[in-house]
C-alpha cells in the first residue's frame, strides 16, 4: 500500500512561501489520509463540520494551488466531477 507523505507536502508549501491556512491544511490532511481519488463534494462534506464556511470555491482554489505545486493529482472522469488524490508518496 502506498503511504502518502503529508509532511513533505506541507514542507513544499512552506518552501514556496504559500500561506498554509487552516482550511488548506485540513484539505491536504483529508486528501493525504484517503486511499483513493476523491471529489470536491466529498472534501466539502467531510470538512463542513469543522469549517462551516468552507465551500466548493475554497476547495477548488486550494486544489488549484496544490496541483500547481505537484501536491495532488487530478483525474478527469468523463461525465463526472474531477477527482483528486495525494501526489507525494514516501
Structure description:
The protein is mainly α. The protein is 48% helix and 9% strand. It is built from four helices and two strands, in the order ααααββ. The protein has helices spanning 6-15, 22-33, 40-47, 56-68; strands at 72-75, 83-86. Strands 1-2 form a two-stranded antiparallel ribbon. The mean pLDDT is 90.
Secondary-structure topology with pairs:
Blueprint: H1 6-15, H2 22-33, H3 40-47, H4 56-68, E1 72-75, E2 83-86
Antiparallel strand pairs: 1-2
Helix pairs in contact: 2-4
For the structure shown, list the relevant keywords.
mainly alpha, two-stranded antiparallel sheet, 4 helices, globular
Query: Element order, helices and strands?
Result: HHHHEE
**Distance linking N and C termini:** 11 Å
Placed side by side, the strands forming the largest sheet appear as 1-2
Low-confidence segments, ≥5 residues, pLDDT <50?
A: none
The value of Rg in angstroms is 12 Å
Task: Provide the β-strand percentage band.
Answer: 5-15%
**Mean pLDDT level:** 90
Shape label: globular
Largest sheet geometry = 2 strands, antiparallel
Number of strands: 2
Number of helices: 4
Helix content: 40-55%
Structural class: mainly alpha
Amino acid at each position: 500500500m502506498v503511504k502518502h507523505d503529508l509532511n513533505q507536502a506541507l514542507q513544499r508549501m512552506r518552501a514556496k512561501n504559500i500561506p498554509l491556512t487552516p482550511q488548506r491544511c485540513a484539505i491536504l490532511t483529508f486528501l493525504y489520509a484517503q486511499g483513493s481519488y476523491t471529489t470536491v463534494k466529498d472534501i466539502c462534506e467531510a470538512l463542513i463540520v469543522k469549517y462551516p464556511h468552507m465551500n466548493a470555491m475554497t476547495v477548488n482554489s486550494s486544489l488549484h494551488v496544490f496541483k500547481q505545486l505537484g501536491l495532488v493529482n487530478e483525474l478527469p472522469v468523463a461525465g463526472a466531477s474531477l477527482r483528486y488524490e495525494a501526489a507525494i508518496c514516501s
